[in-house]
Design brief:
Helices cover 46% and strands 12% of the residues. The longest helix has 21 residues. It has ten helices and six strands; from the N terminus they run βββααβαααβαβαααα. The chain has one domain. The protein is α/β, with parallel strands linked by helices. The radius of gyration is 17 Å and the shape is globular.
Length: 247
């Protein structure tokens, strides 16, 4: 299996870090979330561990690179048909889905493509608006006949998923976090709440990734509507790639 990941930055799916031999992908906390769910329910091994040991099994495409590729890709149906506010997400999924299919054909192996975009806005993201973004990604993958594409859209943003695990008592009554403001400048923003649990400073991408790796954040215990939607999409993609859902 190859993982094809497209996120927004280091604190979600990860980033590229210069090394002596070029650029190396450094998995972020959300990449480890993907990996943990796949390992437990599908592969029984860690794709990211193989990557970190030198294996060639992960491809990372930053959102800016994906947007650039999209300018040369297949035409997007008119935005007005699906809503101008979600056309961007449809296009992202189209391009990533095409890349996944091309890579799978070239390498003769399944490719699971994960498209991460925060669902946040200046105010708390309405559930309808979040659903439209998720649906637009599913639509984009379907338009290019990619059945291994996964929308990963936290509501309102990834800090909500991490806080579900980290705030006392842990993993309890997490759904209300999805109604919090996505605005980092708000007095009780999710970002500020996460910093408060980290000694008052914003946790680095490496620190957040470490929470998932060590089990301080256990994705298998998170129960939130946006997380469950992501997890179901990942299960479907993995099964379409040939990995059945394990009990």
């Amino acid at each position: 299996m190859r993982l094809l990941l497209s996120g927004e930055g280091p604190t979600d799916l990860g980033h590229e870090r210069p090394t002596g031999g070029g650029m190396k992908f450094v998995p972020g906390p959300m990449a480890w979330v993907v990996d943990k769910v796949l390992e437990r329910h599908h592969t029984q091994y860690s794709v990211l561990d193989i990557h970190l040991a030198g294996g060639d099994c992960v491809t990372h495409v930053h959102e800016t690179a994906l947007a650039s590729m999209g300018k040369q890709g297949s035409p997007l149906f008119p935005g007005v048909k699906f809503g101008k506010g979600t056309a961007f997400f449809t296009r992202n999924a189209q391009v990533l889905g095409l890349l996944a299919k091309q890579t799978a054909a070239q390498e003769l192996q399944p490719v699971v493509a994960v498209l991460f975009r925060d669902g946040d806005g200046v105010r708390a993201t309405p559930s309808g608006e979040w659903q439209e973004k998720v649906d637009s990604m599913h639509r984009g993958f379907a338009m290019v006949e990619c059945d291994t594409g996964v929308p990963m859209v936290p509501r309102p943003k990834s800090e909500a998923w991490l806080l579900c695990a980290l705030r006392p008592p842990g993993y309890a009554n997490c759904a209300p976090l999805e109604d919090a403001s996505g605005n980092d400048a708000s007095p009780n923003s999710l970002k500020k709440q996460l910093a408060a649990l980290s000694g008052g400073t914003d946790p680095s991408a490496d620190e957040q990734a470490g929470w998932v790796v060590t089990g301080a954040v256990d994705p298998l215990r998170i129960d939130m509507p946006s997380f469950n939607a992501f997890k179901q999409a990942l299960h479907t993609a993995a099964q379409n790639a040939g990995w059945p859902l394990l009990p």
